[in-house]
Amino acid sequence: MSQLNLDQGQIDRARESARRIAHRVFDDMSQYTTTTVERATLRLMGVDGVDDNQIPLPNRLVAHLQEQKLLAHGAASVVAGAMAEHALTAQQVAEAVAAGKLVLARPKHDKAARQSAEAIAAKMCEHIAAQRAVRSQQIDKVGEARTPWLYLIVATGNIFEDIVQARAAAEQGADIVAVIRSTGQSLLDYVPYGATTEGFGGTYATQENFRLMRAALDEVGAKIGRYIRLTNYCSGLCMPEIAAMGAMERLDMMLNDSMYGIIFRDINMKRTFIDQFFSRMVNAYAGIIINTGEDNYLTTADAFDAAHTVLASQLINEQFAYISGLKPDQMGLGHAFEINPDLENGFLWEVAHAQLVRQVFPEACLKYMPPTKHMTGNIFRGHIQDALFNVVSTLTGQNIHLLGMMTEAIHTPFIQDRFLAIQNAKYVFGTMRDLHDEVEFKAGGRIESRAQQVLAETVGILADIEKIGLPAAIGRGTFADISRTMDGGKGLDGVIAKSPDYYNPFPDLMLAGAN
Amino acid sequence: MSQLNLDQGQIDRARESARRIAHRVFDDMSQYTTTTVERATLRLMGVDGVDDNQIPLPNRLVAHLQEQKLLAHGAASVVAGAMAEHALTAQQVAEAVAAGKLVLARPKHDKAARQSAEAIAAKMCEHIAAQRAVRSQQIDKVGEARTPWLYLIVATGNIFEDIVQARAAAEQGADIVAVIRSTGQSLLDYVPYGATTEGFGGTYATQENFRLMRAALDEVGAKIGRYIRLTNYCSGLCMPEIAAMGAMERLDMMLNDSMYGIIFRDINMKRTFIDQFFSRMVNAYAGIIINTGEDNYLTTADAFDAAHTVLASQLINEQFAYISGLKPDQMGLGHAFEINPDLENGFLWEVAHAQLVRQVFPEACLKYMPPTKHMTGNIFRGHIQDALFNVVSTLTGQNIHLLGMMTEAIHTPFIQDRFLAIQNAKYVFGTMRDLHDEVEFKAGGRIESRAQQVLAETVGILADIEKIGLPAAIGRGTFADISRTMDGGKGLDGVIAKSPDYYNPFPDLMLAGAN
Amino acid sequence: MSADMSKHLTLHTSETVAENRVEPNFVKPYGDTMNDGRVQLSFTLPVALDENAKEAARQLALEMGFDEPAVVHAEDMGQGFSFYVLYGQCKHRVDLSRIKVAKPEFETLDKDAINALIAEKMGRKMVVVGACIETDAHTVGIDAIMNMKGYNGHKGLESYHEVRAINMGAQVDSEELVARAIEEQADVILVSQVVTQKNIHLDNLTRLSDLLEAEGIRDRVILVVGGPRISHELAKELGYDAGFGTKSYAEDVASFAINEWIKRHTA
Amino acid sequence: MSADMSKHLTLHTSETVAENRVEPNFVKPYGDTMNDGRVQLSFTLPVALDENAKEAARQLALEMGFDEPAVVHAEDMGQGFSFYVLYGQCKHRVDLSRIKVAKPEFETLDKDAINALIAEKMGRKMVVVGACIETDAHTVGIDAIMNMKGYNGHKGLESYHEVRAINMGAQVDSEELVARAIEEQADVILVSQVVTQKNIHLDNLTRLSDLLEAEGIRDRVILVVGGPRISHELAKELGYDAGFGTKSYAEDVASFAINEWIKRHTA
Ligand code: B12
Ligand code: B12
Ligand SMILES: Cc1ncc(COP(=O)(O)O)c(C=O)c1O
Ligand SMILES: Cc1ncc(COP(=O)(O)O)c(C=O)c1O
């Protein structure tokens, strides 16, 4: 599509505001770690498994460190110290602690402990880098799918059923499969273990489930000659741990937002800001594309009125992403086709919004979400809403294209819903293959003016946020019409002030080595 | 939409060819009348009803005139003469003839007979003009619907069931209701009589059915405050009679094509060319919008390859229409969205074709037909094909918009099919209300080039047709990939060479008085 | 329940009063002719497409009671699945005259009338505590009912000056909700349940009402549930006082609540 | 019948031979879990929308044998009609192992092989007369089979040098078709029927076969019908030798015809 005429000065100003906003948060949060950051660190050092009560060993170990008042120093060196001292693996340390056979203390040789922690971490980084290489090789071999990539969810609650559905979806044309997480997992302060078959509205994110799905997709991908990307939710109270698991198991994308948990799950702000930094760093290193959650704002706020909050949030997410080492092509910034279908000229505004985002983030791997809020039980009408969404996506050159389901208002997708959704998108994308190259929108017309207006509003709101700071802005309900406070929400008890000698081997290794 | 850059010289050349093609046919055919033209004349003079064997009296009377070798003089003056001589109405003459009580002969006072025929005809013209005035008043009162007008069909086979469906359709938003005709009626050489309840794939076109449906639509129109246009088929072996019935009963539109019967019903060429002239003249006078049938070509020929044959035929239909006194805004020139949905960039070509037709006929009341041939039993996919058709229609400013049915490949529409089709169109038209005003297509791009190419091919094919004449061109299968010969097909026996004193009062009255 | 629906209710009730034995009024699906029974179906079969699978699809429709079922579309989906679209003529009919849907019995008033009624009958503010319970985080529905802004132009309970509306938001444990209701001396508890996969809403709702019973306050509160898959009938079955589905607004709930309160306090 | 379908046929036949008693193989619709029975329905009821009408829609689904039917969409259509979308869990299941769809038994050959077989076995051209009979004017189907050009890249019978293909076109009276078949000494008659409203195709097809019987030539011709709503089973019921539905091509019909001719002339 022809470029809309936008003021680059405004874009730069908005981005600068966002940069300062994000850095201020980052600086404020650098003095803290969290229980899940430490658990993620332990997982990356090789701790896994659960105790008899199904409590994950990383949780047991971190709880122990908290009891021993050791966590502020960072779990890595304490555990590395114990490993050296007792000639145990990290896993054995965890098991011993869980069994009550071992009580941890500060390492005798702190420097040595750090060095050995770093060595363990470096090995894990090698493994993750190798996974990244496998991905690249496979993509090189079979070639990259044309964008917009077709992104489909499976959400049966049972990983084995999910696999059946994911294979069928891939065979039908999906480029990306996301395993939706069970309702409520995001508020669990631990990651469930093993293969799971009992989720509600989704399947638990566990490392074993990741592994099973990855293997299934590799297999079907080999059969159909296309690399199928796997997605999960790096979100909620265990964001960093899920990042770690995903990096180890070669996930390709992660839902990962700097504010979603705060706003939509009432998770504490500090907790989220700290966790998102660590998790994104792992994602960056693993070559994972993150998907941010601005689309969600439009399910509680109005898509027309709140369009500028989406762009403002994307700019903030972008800056947080840069801080964690993510590259633009790993930034799946989220937005959505959520304008009320009854609004006259709504399609024009959708085009304006989608194209605005495209132009503000020319290199990003944009994630475009289908209509959900205004979908109804009228599946026939819904199928057309989805078709027009498909039109906008191809017209404005979106990258990650989440397929709309005509049954959105009814149930998590049935196999036929997905089948028909793929047909819908393929038909639209094919019959309009080069339309983006043909269409120009009138200079000074409604579409261009709308985009300019949203951009101007974005500049304004970011200036306001910069003035009061992001936490206060969230407190005012700036995003999604939902308001949260700095000390409210779940998970604040997991925020730990770092001691001056806090040590974690991963940031140095990962921030340096991101692709 | 911005105008595509087309060569006006080419358009003019094509139109000139078409003019010469049509005039040559008209000149050749002027020496003939047909049985149905004469029956139509009698109907317009007041002959109606059927005999005991359900044979319409116009048929009985014309058969009698043929037996008496009187038809070549024109039925009007013979019957007017008999009326004067026996002090009977036209209807009474017909009844007496049918009962075997009267044998007609050439009028004793030919001039007087002509004069009285003209007086009778003038009265009918007044009635038709009054009907036209009613239509204008009603439209003035309630206002004209926004284009594209939503055009829906009812086809239950039972006029009373059709009425139920038509009312519901109007209430749901239809602007035009077409009562589809029973399979096979077009090959009947008479018009059935009375209210009918037994059709296949449609309901018989009878004058009583016209009347019933007109009354029903007037009633529902008054209720919902919108004038609902009524459409039927002025086509087949009784084209002129149906035109007469429609004019009397205030139909608003008629499917009426100069070649459809030849090509798709294997009706004799001469018969059709003669009938179409008379029927169009009646339509013109009655203020009826004709709908031509070029869309049908794309059900037997390929919509991409044969695009130029559609435009060529429209130009010919336009010229025939001018000859009969039709004004551009009465010309519902037909075309269709029939490109294979699997064709890459098919949507671009549809836009090119639709916009080309729009620009070549800027004042015409274009009739745009939905996908039919490539509709399948997959109603979900079909609903999207219809949605994209709706997009092209609003984007290119079509006038008469026949609603696509997702069940096209399955059955004549159920009430819910129509309901959902209206929703589909209303949603698309609303959400894209001003899109046509915003979109420009790249100069020299694929869309414009495609339109230019089709136009150039049209100029070429019309030049060829002009060389060999339209009948020979039809013989070569130029249209719809179907070939017909001058003396083949049904109904040739109804073509009668006029005697030098042939008389018919209507052409003079109607051609002069068309609106 | 919207004003529109309650109109129908009145109608049906008066009919019932007028004549106790109603004439049967059989109704069947309609395609294009009365009683033609036409129905559209679609489903997936977990077998690859072949002629036998297609016939299986047709036979299923026969078993459902369709005459002349036609498989109008059949398509392979890969991995041993196939998709079907069918049309058939439903043999079944239902007697509309025998259907009397359970509905909360009240008339929907407007905001002013509701405020006036509360003031008059209760002589104090009505206390309403609401939440989206357990794992459910879909607050848009409960917010539509409770928050100032409301929904579709219908203001929420917070805007009613005779109502003290406390919206606890998403993923509230039943225990928390009950504690708060006790603390606030709630007259009404509003619960929203949107996620219904594997009938999790039934478990959640049962859990809440059991807790209220256990705390001995079930009878003291008016207990209302809402959500897109909630019907009044279902709510009643679960021991709730009323259930509200899609297109409910604050005035519907408030009208029911004050109506019910009056009934309980005058009975 | 496509080559692909006949592959399945062979498979099933050999299975049947291998073991005479097949294990039952029950199949149910599938939504997202094996045997969950999920089915989508939509239909219109000839009553205005209200809660009772919605309940009637639900009860119809119950009668069809659906567990937990849910009316997920209900909308008034005006003029006393209302539209419904439902999902439910189908209780019925069918035993795939008991389904053996009648199929014309032949192997689809390619054009060259067909020509060779005709030359070898008949020693002359095979005469095929085709038409779209009675009021039906849908020639695209019969043209797809008979005309030179063919369909979807499959050439039609006119392109087979061992076939004399006479396509009479649209709306041909049965009498005319029979007369021509006699005149041309047709080996095969191909009939197309596309319009099926009120089962008019059944009347037309019966009429033709009665005429052929009356003329005493029914046994001398191979009588084949095709169309989008035609199945081999239906054709057999009507006394035809074979029936072909959508996605049939010239080679399918020609393969069947020569196969059948050989069978008749060697028996
Ligand atoms: C918005 C939305 C979200 C938002 C919620 C934001 C928020 N703060 O509410 C976000 C993005 C966070 C979200 C997340 C998820 N969602 Co969600 N979501 C939706 C969506 C698109 C719209 C729901 C909505 O807001 N409707 C508008 C409101 C106004 O309607 P309503 O809820 O029906 O409310 C009305 C009435 O029902 C009634 N009412 C409702 N509650 C009450 C209470 C009382 C007391 C009364 C009187 C009346 C009443 O009055 C309201 C106004 O008329 C629906 C799909 C859809 N189009 O319906 C899916 C949907 C509900 N979500 C679904 C799922 C599965 C999820 C997830 C579990 C997915 C996942 N695994 O990640 C998560 C987890 C959420 C969780 N833990 O609960 C499924 C549920 C499937 C099912 N039937 O079980 C749906 C149907 C989508 C789908 N097809 O998969 N979701
Ligand atoms: C094209 C078309 C027309 C064209 C026909 C042009 C022509 N010369 O054929 C025109 C515009 C003239 C037309 C008119 C009408 N049509 Co029409 N038409 C269609 C349409 C859009 C496509 C049919 C088609 O060509 N399919 C492509 C061919 C290749 O497929 P096919 O016929 O299935 O053929 C394949 C197989 O079935 C098989 N096959 C078919 N015949 C034979 C024969 C043999 C021997 C063999 C072996 C195989 C075989 O092989 C073929 C290739 O694989 C359909 C809707 C649709 N999408 O299906 C409606 C449709 C068939 N028409 C319909 C109707 C009602 C009519 C009219 C009666 C409407 C009216 N009242 O005006 C008229 C009257 C026609 C008449 N007298 O018969 C209805 C029929 C409803 C029903 N089930 O009864 C349909 C379904 C549309 C609808 N939903 O209303 N139509
Ligand atoms: C960024 C992000 N995280 C997570 C989720 C899912 O929510 P949860 O996993 O918290 O239930 C979403 C919602 O789609 C999201 O956009
Ligand atoms: C111009 C015209 N006449 C007539 C018809 C209908 O065919 P018939 O009435 O001959 O069956 C059509 C087809 O849609 C048409 O386009």
Number of strands of chain C: 10
Uncertain parts of chain C? 1-19
Biggest sheet layout of chain A: 9 strands, parallel
DSSP strand content of chain C:
15-25%
Most extensive chain-chain interface = C-D, 45 and 45 residues
Task: Note the topology.
The complex is a heterotetramer, with two copies of chain A (515 residues) and two copies of chain C (267 residues).
Chain A: H1 8-29, E1 32-34, H2 35-44, H3 57-67, H4 75-86, H5 90-98, H6 110-142, E2 149-154, H7 159-172, E3 176-179, H8 207-224, E4 229-233, H9 239-248, E5 253-255, H10 260-265, H11 269-285, E6 289-291, H12 297-300, H13 307-323, E7 331-332, E8 334-336, H14 346-360, E9 367-369, H15 379-395, E10 400-402, H16 415-431, H17 435-438, E11 439-441, H18 446-468, H19 470-475, E12 495-497, H20 506-513
Parallel strand pairs in A: 2-3, 2-10, 3-4, 4-5, 5-6, 6-7, 8-9, 9-10
Antiparallel strand pairs in A: 1-12
Chain C: H1 3-18, E1 26-27, E2 38-45, H2 51-63, E3 66-78, E4 81-90, E5 94-95, H3 111-122, E6 126-132, H4 140-146, E7 163-167, H5 174-184, E8 188-192, H6 200-214, E9 222-226, H7 232-237, E10 242-244, H8 250-266
Parallel strand pairs in C: 6-7, 6-8, 8-9, 9-10
Antiparallel strand pairs in C: 1-5, 2-4, 3-4
